[in-house]
Amino acid sequence: MRDLKHAVLKLFLENRRESGKYYYTVPSPASYPYQWFWDSCFHAIILSHFSPHDAKNEIFSLLSKQFDNGLIPHMIYWKKGKVINVNWGKDGTSSITQPPMIAYAVRQIFQTDGDLSFVRTVYPSLYHFYRYLLTERDPHEKHLVGIMNPDESGEDNSPRFDDPLNLPPTNTLKENTKRRFQLVDQNIDCKFDAPFCMRNFFWVKDVPFNAIMVKNMQVLAELAEKLGNNDDALYFTQKSKEISSAMRKHQLSHGLFWSVYGKRYQKIKVKTWAIFAPLFAGILTKEEAKELVKKHLLNKKEFWTDYPVPTVSRKEPSFDPKGFWRGPAWIATNWFIYKGLLNYGFVEEAKRIKESSLALIEKSGFREHFNPLTGEGEGAKNFTWGGLVIDMD
Ligand code: GLC
C-alpha cells in the first residue's frame, strides 16, 4: 500500500498542470489532456490524502469556469490540444455537466484539515450549482434530476442510454458517439436550455446521478450547518429526502432501481452497476441491500467476475468486456460500490472490491478501465482514477 501511495503521488505530479493562477490535474496526458468535472472531484478526494492545499486548487480551478446560471461544465479546455475537439457551442468549456460530486469532495478536504474558511469561500458556488440542478433539471418539481446528454452521466456510451437514443443493444462506439454528437448539435440549437432540450431530445433521470445527488444534498446540509446556516441545512436535507423518495416511487421495481426516461418515466431495464449506486446514498432498506448484494453483486453470472465489478451484467446482450462503459471494470465505479457496501456494514464484500481494484492496478497499471474477465488494462494510460484505491480505507 505504501508503494502504491507513492505511485499515485508520482502519477498526480506528472498529470498536474498550471494555467495562470489555476492548477488542475489531467486524467491522462495523452488521451484526456484537459480538466473534467467529476474527475477533478475524484482528484480532490485523492489529493486530500497528500495535500489538502492541492485538493483545494483542483476545486478552485473547476469553479473558476462556473456559468452564470450555476452549471459547472464537464470539460475545461484551458488550452485546446489535438484530441477531443468538440464544438460545444462555447469557447474554452463544454456546456453540459457531470455527476455532482463536488460537495462530497469539499467535505472530504474539510475533514482532512478543518479549514472552515475554505468551505465558506466555495459554499456560494456550490449552492448556486446544486440550485441549478434542483430547478433547471427538474422543471416540473417531480424531485428527480434529469440529464440532457448521456455524457452527463460520466458513462458516455453505457447501454442504459441505448433506448432513449434509439440505438440497438449492440451498437459500436463509433455509432454511439455519432448519435451523442447529434444530440450536442441539438443542444446547441436549443442553446442548452435544459428544460427545453430535455423535453424535446433526451430526458433521462439516471440512477447514479440521482443517488449522487441524494448523498451530496446530505453533505451540503452538513456543510451549511457548519457555517451556521440552518435554513440551508434544513432545505438541503429536505431535498435529499425528496429525491430519495422520488427514486423509490419512480425507479424501484422488485428491489432494483432503474433509470427512467421520457414523460412517462419509462424504466430502462438494462442491468448495469447502476443498480448498486443507491447503496452509496443509503436509499435501500437493509433487507433490500442484502438481497441486492447476494442475488446480483455476488452472482457469478452477473457481476461477480474474476476481476469485479463489471459496469454491465454479463447476462446483458450489450455486455462487452472491452467495450468502454459497456462492460469493463472502472476504479471509480468500484469506489462507489465499496463506499455503498460499507454504509450497510458489508465489510467483507467491500474488502473484496478493494482487493479486486488493487489486483487490477497491480496486473495492468493505471489504465482507464479493465477487462473484468481477464484483468487486462484498456483505454487511456497513466489514468488518474486508479488513485481512488487509496481512498478505500
Ligand atoms: C470519458 C469518461 C468520463 C470522464 C472523461 C475523462 O469521457 O466517460 O467519465 O470524465 O473520459 O476522464
From TrEMBL:
Domain Mannosylglycerate hydrolase MGH1-like glycoside hydrolase: 32-385
Keyword Cell membrane: no
Entry-linked Pfam families: MGH1-like_GH (PF22422)
GO biological process: oligosaccharide metabolic process; protein N-linked glycosylation
MF term (GO), any: Glc3Man9GlcNAc2 oligosaccharide glucosidase activity
Lineage top rank: taxon: Bacteria
Residue segments, region Disordered: 150-169
Transport keyword on record: no
Keywords: Glycosidase, Hydrolase
Family per record: Belongs to the glycosyl hydrolase 63 family.
UniProt-recorded name of the protein: Mannosylglycerate hydrolase MGH1-like glycoside hydrolase domain-containing protein
Organism field: Candidatus Daviesbacteria bacterium RIFCSPHIGHO2_12_FULL_43_11
